[in-house]
Amino acid sequence: MYGLIGKMRAARGKRDAVMDVLRETTGALPGCLSYVIAIDPVDADAIWVTEVWTDQASHKASLQLPEVQAAIAKARPFIAGFEFQVETQPVGGFGLPRAEAG
Amino acid sequence: MYGLIGKMRAARGKRDAVMDVLRETTGALPGCLSYVIAIDPVDADAIWVTEVWTDQASHKASLQLPEVQAAIAKARPFIAGFEFQVETQPVGGFGLPRAEAG
Protein backbone atom coordinates (compact mmCIF):
# COMPACT_ATOMS: atom_id res chain seq x y z
CA MET A 1 0.00 0.00 0.00
CA TYR A 2 0.99 3.64 -0.43
CA GLY A 3 0.21 6.34 2.12
CA LEU A 4 0.38 10.10 2.37
CA ILE A 5 0.14 12.30 5.44
CA GLY A 6 -0.06 15.98 4.67
CA LYS A 7 -0.84 19.32 6.22
CA MET A 8 -2.04 22.13 4.06
CA ARG A 9 -2.74 25.71 5.02
CA ALA A 10 -5.79 27.48 3.70
CA ALA A 11 -5.72 31.14 2.94
CA ARG A 12 -7.04 33.08 5.93
CA GLY A 13 -10.70 32.32 6.41
CA LYS A 14 -10.86 29.89 3.47
CA ARG A 15 -10.47 26.60 5.32
CA ASP A 16 -14.10 25.63 5.00
CA ALA A 17 -14.08 26.41 1.28
CA VAL A 18 -11.14 24.03 0.84
CA MET A 19 -12.81 21.39 3.01
CA ASP A 20 -15.95 21.60 0.88
CA VAL A 21 -13.98 20.92 -2.29
CA LEU A 22 -12.13 18.02 -0.66
CA ARG A 23 -15.35 16.47 0.57
CA GLU A 24 -17.07 16.77 -2.78
CA THR A 25 -14.18 15.10 -4.54
CA THR A 26 -13.20 12.19 -2.33
CA GLY A 27 -15.60 9.58 -3.55
CA ALA A 28 -14.54 6.14 -4.61
CA LEU A 29 -11.46 6.93 -6.67
CA PRO A 30 -9.82 3.83 -8.19
CA GLY A 31 -7.26 2.41 -5.78
CA CYS A 32 -8.19 4.72 -2.91
CA LEU A 33 -8.66 2.78 0.34
CA SER A 34 -8.93 5.67 2.77
CA TYR A 35 -8.94 9.46 2.51
CA VAL A 36 -9.55 11.27 5.79
CA ILE A 37 -9.91 15.04 5.94
CA ALA A 38 -9.42 16.70 9.32
CA ILE A 39 -9.23 20.14 10.80
CA ASP A 40 -6.64 21.05 13.42
CA PRO A 41 -8.19 22.06 16.76
CA VAL A 42 -5.33 24.45 17.53
CA ASP A 43 -4.55 25.85 14.08
CA ALA A 44 -7.56 27.48 12.46
CA ASP A 45 -6.32 27.51 8.85
CA ALA A 46 -4.76 24.04 8.82
CA ILE A 47 -6.14 20.92 7.15
CA TRP A 48 -4.70 17.43 7.67
CA VAL A 49 -5.22 14.83 4.97
CA THR A 50 -4.29 11.18 5.48
CA GLU A 51 -4.51 8.86 2.50
CA VAL A 52 -4.12 5.16 1.84
CA TRP A 53 -3.92 3.85 -1.73
CA THR A 54 -3.40 0.36 -3.08
CA ASP A 55 -0.16 1.60 -4.64
CA GLN A 56 1.63 4.79 -5.66
CA ALA A 57 0.56 4.41 -9.29
CA SER A 58 -3.11 4.62 -8.28
CA HIS A 59 -2.48 7.84 -6.41
CA LYS A 60 -0.56 9.31 -9.32
CA ALA A 61 -3.27 8.28 -11.78
CA SER A 62 -5.96 9.88 -9.59
CA LEU A 63 -4.35 13.28 -10.08
CA GLN A 64 -5.14 13.05 -13.79
CA LEU A 65 -8.85 12.26 -13.36
CA PRO A 66 -11.06 15.07 -14.70
CA GLU A 67 -12.95 15.43 -11.39
CA VAL A 68 -9.70 15.65 -9.45
CA GLN A 69 -8.24 18.16 -11.90
CA ALA A 70 -11.39 20.24 -11.53
CA ALA A 71 -11.18 20.07 -7.75
CA ILE A 72 -7.54 21.14 -7.76
CA ALA A 73 -8.41 24.11 -9.95
CA LYS A 74 -11.33 25.02 -7.68
CA ALA A 75 -9.38 24.74 -4.42
CA ARG A 76 -6.10 26.30 -5.54
CA PRO A 77 -7.11 29.96 -4.95
CA PHE A 78 -8.02 29.08 -1.35
CA ILE A 79 -4.77 27.27 -0.49
CA ALA A 80 -1.87 29.21 0.99
CA GLY A 81 0.57 26.31 0.96
CA PHE A 82 1.61 22.81 1.95
CA GLU A 83 3.54 22.65 5.21
CA PHE A 84 4.16 19.01 5.70
CA GLN A 85 4.00 15.93 3.57
CA VAL A 86 5.34 12.47 4.18
CA GLU A 87 5.00 9.29 2.15
CA THR A 88 4.36 6.13 4.10
CA GLN A 89 3.97 2.45 3.40
CA PRO A 90 0.87 1.26 5.28
CA VAL A 91 1.11 -2.39 6.21
CA GLY A 92 -2.05 -3.05 8.19
CA GLY A 93 -4.25 -1.99 11.02
CA PHE A 94 -7.97 -1.63 11.40
CA GLY A 95 -10.59 -0.06 9.18
CA LEU A 96 -9.04 -0.63 5.77
CA PRO A 97 -10.80 -2.87 3.26
CA ARG A 98 -10.16 -6.39 4.46
CA ALA A 99 -8.35 -7.73 1.43
CA GLU A 100 -5.75 -4.98 1.64
CA ALA A 101 -5.27 -4.71 5.37
CA GLY A 102 -3.01 -7.77 5.67
CA MET B 1 -14.55 12.52 15.44
CA TYR B 2 -11.13 12.54 17.08
CA GLY B 3 -7.92 11.84 15.21
CA LEU B 4 -4.28 11.24 16.00
CA ILE B 5 -1.29 11.30 13.68
CA GLY B 6 1.90 10.09 15.27
CA LYS B 7 5.41 8.99 14.47
CA MET B 8 7.22 6.69 16.81
CA ARG B 9 10.79 5.48 16.62
CA ALA B 10 11.62 1.87 17.34
CA ALA B 11 14.85 0.91 19.01
CA ARG B 12 17.41 0.01 16.35
CA GLY B 13 16.35 -3.16 14.59
CA LYS B 14 13.11 -3.48 16.58
CA ARG B 15 10.66 -1.91 14.19
CA ASP B 16 9.15 -5.19 13.09
CA ALA B 17 8.73 -6.30 16.70
CA VAL B 18 6.74 -3.12 17.41
CA MET B 19 4.72 -3.54 14.23
CA ASP B 20 3.81 -7.09 15.24
CA VAL B 21 2.44 -5.89 18.58
CA LEU B 22 0.49 -3.09 16.92
CA ARG B 23 -1.02 -5.45 14.38
CA GLU B 24 -2.03 -8.01 17.00
CA THR B 25 -3.75 -5.35 19.08
CA THR B 26 -5.63 -3.22 16.61
CA GLY B 27 -8.81 -5.21 16.31
CA ALA B 28 -12.23 -3.70 16.73
CA LEU B 29 -11.70 -1.49 19.78
CA PRO B 30 -14.85 0.34 20.89
CA GLY B 31 -15.09 3.69 19.12
CA CYS B 32 -12.16 3.02 16.79
CA LEU B 33 -13.04 3.85 13.18
CA SER B 34 -9.61 3.56 11.61
CA TYR B 35 -6.11 2.66 12.81
CA VAL B 36 -3.48 2.51 10.08
CA ILE B 37 0.06 1.37 10.80
CA ALA B 38 2.73 2.33 8.29
CA ILE B 39 6.45 2.12 7.87
CA ASP B 40 8.51 5.01 6.54
CA PRO B 41 10.25 4.20 3.26
CA VAL B 42 13.15 6.55 4.04
CA ASP B 43 13.51 6.07 7.81
CA ALA B 44 14.12 2.45 8.78
CA ASP B 45 13.19 2.70 12.48
CA ALA B 46 10.13 4.93 12.10
CA ILE B 47 6.48 3.91 12.38
CA TRP B 48 3.56 6.17 11.46
CA VAL B 49 0.20 5.57 13.08
CA THR B 50 -2.94 7.41 11.96
CA GLU B 51 -6.07 6.93 14.03
CA VAL B 52 -9.73 7.98 13.81
CA TRP B 53 -12.02 7.53 16.80
CA THR B 54 -15.65 8.46 17.31
CA ASP B 55 -14.51 10.83 20.07
CA GLN B 56 -11.59 11.55 22.38
CA ALA B 57 -13.23 9.68 25.27
CA SER B 58 -13.22 6.44 23.25
CA HIS B 59 -9.53 6.79 22.55
CA LYS B 60 -8.78 7.52 26.19
CA ALA B 61 -10.88 4.58 27.35
CA SER B 62 -9.08 2.25 24.94
CA LEU B 63 -5.81 2.88 26.75
CA GLN B 64 -7.29 1.24 29.83
CA LEU B 65 -8.41 -1.96 28.08
CA PRO B 66 -6.49 -5.00 29.34
CA GLU B 67 -5.40 -6.03 25.84
CA VAL B 68 -4.13 -2.52 25.11
CA GLN B 69 -2.33 -2.32 28.46
CA ALA B 70 -0.70 -5.68 27.67
CA ALA B 71 0.34 -4.47 24.23
CA ILE B 72 1.84 -1.28 25.65
CA ALA B 73 3.85 -3.33 28.14
CA LYS B 74 4.99 -5.69 25.40
CA ALA B 75 6.02 -2.98 22.95
CA ARG B 76 7.59 -0.52 25.38
CA PRO B 77 11.07 -2.12 25.45
CA PHE B 78 11.23 -1.86 21.67
CA ILE B 79 10.25 1.81 21.42
CA ALA B 80 12.94 4.48 21.47
CA GLY B 81 10.55 7.42 21.53
CA PHE B 82 7.73 9.42 20.04
CA GLU B 83 8.85 12.11 17.63
CA PHE B 84 5.67 13.64 16.45
CA GLN B 85 2.07 13.64 17.52
CA VAL B 86 -0.81 15.82 16.50
CA GLU B 87 -4.46 15.69 17.43
CA THR B 88 -6.92 16.30 14.64
CA GLN B 89 -10.65 16.59 14.20
CA PRO B 90 -11.60 14.41 11.22
CA VAL B 91 -14.71 15.68 9.50
CA GLY B 92 -15.16 13.37 6.54
CA GLY B 93 -13.61 11.78 3.56
CA PHE B 94 -13.64 8.31 2.13
CA GLY B 95 -13.21 4.91 3.75
CA LEU B 96 -14.61 5.64 7.20
CA PRO B 97 -17.74 3.82 8.38
CA ARG B 98 -20.58 5.50 6.56
CA ALA B 99 -22.57 6.71 9.55
CA GLU B 100 -19.57 8.60 10.88
CA ALA B 101 -18.09 9.98 7.71
CA GLY B 102 -20.53 12.89 7.46
Automatic annotation (TrEMBL), chains A, B:
InterPro entries on file: ABM_dom (IPR007138), Dimeric_a/b-barrel (IPR011008)
Domain annotation ABM: ranges: 2-88
Classification via Pfam families: ABM
UniProt xrefs under PROSITE patterns: ABM
SUPFAM superfamilies named in the record: Dimeric alpha+beta barrel
Coiled coil: none
UniProt name for this protein: ABM domain-containing protein
